[in-house]
Amino acid sequence: MKLTMASSPHNHSHKSVSKIMMTVMAACIPGILVQTYFFGFGVLIQLALALITVSLTEAAVLKLRSRAIWPSLSDGSAWLTALLLAISVPPLAPWWVTVIGAFFAIAIVKQLYGGLGFNLFNPAMAAYVLLLISFPVQMTSWSPIQEIVTQTLSLADQFAMIFTEATSQGVTLDKWSTSVIDGATSATPLDSVKTSVSQGYTVTEAMSYIGFGEIAGLGWQYVNLAFLLGGLYLLKAKVINWHIPVSFIVSLGLASGVGYIIAPQSEPGTLFHLFSGATMLGAFFIATDPVSASTTNLGRLIYGAAIGLTVYVIRQFGGYPDAVAFAVVIMNMAVPLIDHYTQPRTYGHGANS
Amino acid sequence: METLLEQIESGKLWQFPGGIHPPEQKAQSNQHPISRLPLPEKLILPLKQHIGANGSLLVNVGDHVLKGQALTAPGTNWSLPVHAPTSGVVEAITPMPSAHPSAIPELSIILRPDGADKWIELTPIRDISSLDNAQLIEIIHQAGIAGMGGAGFPTYVKADSPKPIEFLVINGVECEPYITADDRLMRDHAQQIVSGIEVLQQILKPQKILFGIEDNKPEAIAAVSAAAKHNQDILVRSIPTKYPSGGEKQLVKLLTSKEVPSTGIPADIGVLVQNVGTLFAIWQAVFEGKPLIERVVTVTGNTISQPNNVWALLGTEIKHLLDSQGFSPVDAQRVVMGGPMMGFTLPSVRIPVVKTTNCILAPDNKELAIPGEEKACIRCSACADACPQSLLPQQLQWFAKGKEYEKLEEYNLFDCIECGACSYVCPSEIPLVQYYRVAKADIREQKLEQVKAERAKERFEARKARLEREQEERQNKHKRRSPSSPAKAAEQEKVQEALARVKDKQSDKSAVQAAIARAKAKRGENGELEPDNSAIMQEREKRKAQARKYKEAKTEQVSSVDQKDAVAAAIARAKAKKAAAQEQVSSDQAPEDKKTAVAAAIARAKAKKAAKQAEEANDNTAEPSEAVQSTGDVADPRKAAVAAAIARAKAKKAAKQAEEANDNTVEPSEAVQSTDDVADPRKAAVAAAIARAKAKKAAKQAEEANDNTVEPSEAVQSTDDVADPRKAAVAAAIARAKAKKAAKQAEEANDKTLESSEAVQSTDDVADPRKAAVAAAIARAKAKKAAKQVEDTNDNTLEPSEAVQSTDDVADPRKAAVAAAIARAKAKKAAKQAEDTNDNTLEPSEAVQSTDDVADPRKAAVAAAIARAKAKKAAKQAEEANDSTVEPLEEQQSTDTEQAQLDTQTPEARKKAAVKAAIAKAKAKKQAKEQEGNEPS
């Protein structure tokens, strides 16, 4: 009888890369829904744009590299990149912003390094950094929270805004924003606080500004809460380890706490930092990207803490309102070094009790 | 702070990192008591079923044996006997596919049960307190007990621990899914297991005995606890179910908080681990007097209609087990020996149950899905989280793919226990363990290469020194010859030169000697040329640990007889048949030239066939050791010289090819020296002495190799010019008989390795019966010594012993040419075979020394024969390897054509041929030089 030969082990956990990616994407859903609720359908339009772009880009590059397209595309990693990028760009940003970002993430950051598993940098964040540096205006123009505007944009107008950069009546995003809320801001709470503080206002004054909620800005805090929820699910599903998110949050919390104690006037406080901007998204969904993160447990703690600290430093002293993308990309570079110095002690080596 | 002992007594358990929880799948097979199988039709008993050496055979084909009768006797070096599992008749003793992932053939006894199942007389012991440790250990040894948890380490060695044992750990964890053999054994025979523990307790006197059982076996825990109630030192510990808690290192950590040092064994930290199956076997051996002849095997999987545990006689074919429990195979059926995590798939169901077989798993393709395609690593580190050894499997995988061996070692690859947890959790389905296995093998091989390169360098230096010396000698000779000294004086001069060479070699100044001394100094041995057996043992013991996986059983005997003496031919034929005989080449006697040619043709055909068989084997290596005896009265010195030169060149070439292979194998190092100018018996004696020295050296080198193979030791002695042929023939026959005996002993000796050591004696024209007798005596001594060495080895290889005897009373050049042609054909064949292989090979390192002014054709013939044998051997070794490829000997053909021309030679033509031969020799030498580092000199 002919028997089939195989190498041990003969059993498998039935985990797969695509399942992991799908789980992460599923965990993003609460965040996306909340974001859509506050910022409009633009979020979903950007998501669709990004998904289409990455699929086409990945397929094209794989074709160029003479690789099978579907096996790589179906692992879901490109789609997850698209998703993370799409929820990071402003919902009403022009279409080409997202397309350029998605293309760059896949073609340059991921595939040019050799595809999944070989990229040094987190593709979504590297693309975000590219966009932020190249198109600062578009990338910082968040539409006002829908709850506080006097008049919402219709779906058609959002489409028009994204694809023609103006509504059907020819109103641009900037004009529309100033028209619907008193005073002009399309900036995020982080941005506003930063600007106000730099203009000599105290944080309390800045916080009382319209558009701010109780803790970290209306809308934003709920978006962060939703991503926290998704992140906890990922932890429970054992898709990610606790080390990076916990050390990230603790480090950011500690740094902002210390900052608040030293300079309460110019420092919005720990909770504000934790629940505004991309903190939770970064802690659970971005910094934990396995490919570009540290791989040892101790290394992960260091990596997460370093990102948290960098985020705080850039938010507080740097030129950009938010810093998750920068912090992640910077620490990506340090990963090989961290990994090298944080090898766990192998059984039977070293101290014996 | 509590002491460790107090903590342990209080029931504290420690943790090891990582681990996984695969589906347990144990309920299918642990519901019923262990059942008995009907007697199988035949039993296949590999001589080696454990880690260590074979025992030596005690039975012959056709013998009737009783149940429990020892079939092999253990020697030294961790060898264990095997016993007849039932009464019956020994049907055959031959290599059979073994219980190994590659099913490498292993010398096995095939037993046909007679149905009576009659026990041999047993000597059970009632009260063990009357026995001392040595007696108990002897009982355990003679019962053939090896670790039954899977590794198969001889239990008597462990029981005889030179280090004090603080904690005796009993492994009843059985963490592998599906397997319930230990579970069931503990439930059904807890009392006996506890008695077995008490035997070890008496021997080792540990402070405490920690009995670890996973908490998914509550019945077993209850049974063992009840059975051990009376013994306060036995602490039964229920440990959390997690794979691989049953790993030795993990269990030691769990129960004692200690970690086994990276390169050490548990005894280093005062711990000894024994499996429950082993303890049951100890109980049986001591209290019932029964040797280890059966074991519990779990037969399970979805394709088995009645999964259960069975008592399977060792040697029972897996097919019998499967069929007995109702087996309905699916497409792409896998049959795993062992569990789903660490077991290996069998290539055939015709594999016997051995001492380490704990489970036969025949899953369908749903319960254990066929692995998907390997995807890119996403560095998720799930593997690192699962690793019980705290390794970084993901990093190791990158290094393994990049062949960064230093990095691999830096990341502690060799601490990997190959538990498979990393592969199990890998979302990309990367066969991580397989990468590590390959990388480990590569690293071992690379280290071996380094050792080889070093040795080759030494050889090269020695050779260079020798060549320079030879050149000097030749120049001196020319100088002295110029005043046209008489032939006699020239001859005397040659004798003196030969003697001087020998002396030179023996003196410390000689480069060869220096090389040997260097090598020895490295090993910290004394400077004697004689092989030191104790040193060998040490070396071997070290090697043993590395060498487990490679096995080879191959016996090959090529005997080519080309002589007028019918008796000698008959003896040779008988010998060839006797020797395990997969391959046999024998050529019949031929009184005349034509007949000789016919015989040669037959021999060639057989050689081809033999080669084919050898080729089909994919084992690690077998090396033939051949003893070549040639007594040739070749009339034309020049032709003989040419033939010898060609043979030498070929041998060199073959050696080179073999060397280029990179493998798990070993190298025979042989020193062939042919001193052709020998004019009288003294010279012959000198030549013989040199040959002996070389053979010894070769043997020593072989010993020093840490490969799986063993090498032949050959002693070539040629006493020429003996006046009385008949007496010489008698002497030769005696020598042959001894060689045969030696070979047999070797065969019975330990495991995988059989070596033949043969003493070759060529008695040509024996003038004086006394001389012949002396020669025979020497040959006998050699054979004995060689046999002893062989017996002491425990390597994985079996080497055929070939006795090539060619006594050619060739009267004229034509016969010599025919002989040379046969040799050529064989060499060519061997080369071809070598070419076809891709493997782990060995390298023969041969030192061929030729002194060119051949005065006596007969001696040249002897030299040629030796060279031929060597070439053959080298080729065979190469062939049997399975890795890197070896290259063919192409240049041989050119020399062949030259040689062919010699057949019809006029004196002028002969001169031309001689010139050509010289050119060929020079080429061969040049090539050898190019090879430098690798080239054996």
From TrEMBL, chain A:
<keyword id="KW-0249">Electron transport</keyword>
<keyword id="KW-0472">Membrane</keyword>
<keyword id="KW-1278">Translocase</keyword>
<dbReference type="GO" id="GO:0022900">
    <property type="term" value="P:electron transport chain"/>
</dbReference>
<keyword id="KW-1003">Cell membrane</keyword>
<keyword id="KW-1133">Transmembrane helix</keyword>
<feature type="transmembrane region" description="Helical">
    <location>
        <begin position="95"/>
        <end position="113"/>
    </location>
</feature>
<keyword id="KW-0597">Phosphoprotein</keyword>
<keyword id="KW-0812">Transmembrane</keyword>
<dbReference type="GO" id="GO:0055085">
    <property type="term" value="P:transmembrane transport"/>
</dbReference>
<keyword id="KW-0288">FMN</keyword>
<keyword id="KW-0813">Transport</keyword>
<feature type="modified residue" description="FMN phosphoryl threonine">
    <location>
        <position position="188"/>
    </location>
</feature>
<comment type="similarity">
    <text>Belongs to the NqrB/RnfD family.</text>
</comment>
<protein>
    <recommendedName>
        <fullName>Ion-translocating oxidoreductase complex subunit D</fullName>
        <ecNumber>7.-.-.-</ecNumber>
    </recommendedName>
</protein>
<feature type="transmembrane region" description="Helical">
    <location>
        <begin position="298"/>
        <end position="314"/>
    </location>
</feature>
<feature type="transmembrane region" description="Helical">
    <location>
        <begin position="120"/>
        <end position="137"/>
    </location>
</feature>
<dbReference type="Pfam" id="PF03116">
    <property type="entry name" value="NQR2_RnfD_RnfE"/>
</dbReference>
<dbReference type="InterPro" id="IPR004338">
    <property type="entry name" value="NqrB/RnfD"/>
</dbReference>
<feature type="transmembrane region" description="Helical">
    <location>
        <begin position="215"/>
        <end position="235"/>
    </location>
</feature>
<dbReference type="GO" id="GO:0005886">
    <property type="term" value="C:plasma membrane"/>
</dbReference>
<keyword id="KW-0997">Cell inner membrane</keyword>
<keyword id="KW-0285">Flavoprotein</keyword>
<comment type="subunit">
    <text>The complex is composed of six subunits: RnfA, RnfB, RnfC, RnfD, RnfE and RnfG.</text>
</comment>
<feature type="transmembrane region" description="Helical">
    <location>
        <begin position="20"/>
        <end position="38"/>
    </location>
</feature>
<feature type="transmembrane region" description="Helical">
    <location>
        <begin position="242"/>
        <end position="263"/>
    </location>
</feature>
<feature type="transmembrane region" description="Helical">
    <location>
        <begin position="44"/>
        <end position="62"/>
    </location>
</feature>
<comment type="function">
    <text>Part of a membrane-bound complex that couples electron transfer with translocation of ions across the membrane.</text>
</comment>
<dbReference type="InterPro" id="IPR011303">
    <property type="entry name" value="RnfD_bac"/>
</dbReference>
<feature type="transmembrane region" description="Helical">
    <location>
        <begin position="269"/>
        <end position="286"/>
    </location>
</feature>
